[in-house]
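Recall that a protein's primary structure is simply its ordered list of amino acids. Everything else, from secondary elements to tertiary packing, is in principle encoded there. The following example makes that idea concrete.
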Amino acid sequence: MWGYLGGLRRGGGQDPRRAKQLIGTSAGSIVAARLAGGEDPGRGEERVRWDGEAEPERRTSALRAAIEGATRISMGALSPLAAPALMAATPGGALARAAVLARVPSGRIELRELRSRVEALGPTFDDGRLNIVAVDRGSGRRVVFGSDSAPDASVAEAVAASCAVPGLFAPVDIAGREYVDGGVWSPTNLDLASAGSGDCVLCLVPTAVMGTGPAVALRGLAAGWRLATSVEAAAARRRGAEVEIVAPDAGSARAMGTDLMNPGRRASVLAEGFRQGSAREG
């Protein structure tokens, strides 16, 4: 995502830091927070590292188990996939998520370093311009940090919560409630975009790469996510907004591979994302 935005910026595209709204879900919350903190994706990534705290071997094996858990969460809480908008919005959908989340063991890896890195950037919610999405583990409901209805939290706390993949990373406690990855609700939460006629929405979906892997369960999960995203995008388009959904192209997908937590791939993924963003027309 950061590479793509950097390529877009270097190629003469608009500065994403000036967007009137930034919505971040899971890893996208890091990108949104960095933009809100004033970091320019066009300046390169060489001086910035976002490794996280876990050793690569531990993180990789833990991710496999977490992905299996995430698959159960998404397929159990979002089924049937034919009506993703209804599933996401209804109390029944939230209850289903809460029930499945209760069966997934809490992850053990704390995201303390991620919090400290985000805090160092000094981002603010900027009166609601920055929205960070997480899910209340107990209720299964979506919480949009930065909105008036969300509990008080720092951007760093919200980002850690949004990145807390169930079964891999420990839930993040905010105001006495546990929060987990916002992707449990929606891969993009595109429906939060307050966009209408004349607005342009850029939606980056790196997890679409999971639909190209050999695992049938992950391909099914990715298909459900695509459907949910398309429904959310259609709603924005009906309001007159122009919506562009960007998934990794063939080169970016090859660079990413199937292990999305492998830090050894960072340089090649960044370069391919930059190339893809630079090649975008218009």
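Residues 46-58, 70-87 have pLDDT under 50 and may be disordered. The beta strands are 22-25, 130-136, 142-145, 172-174, 177-181, 200-204, 242-246.
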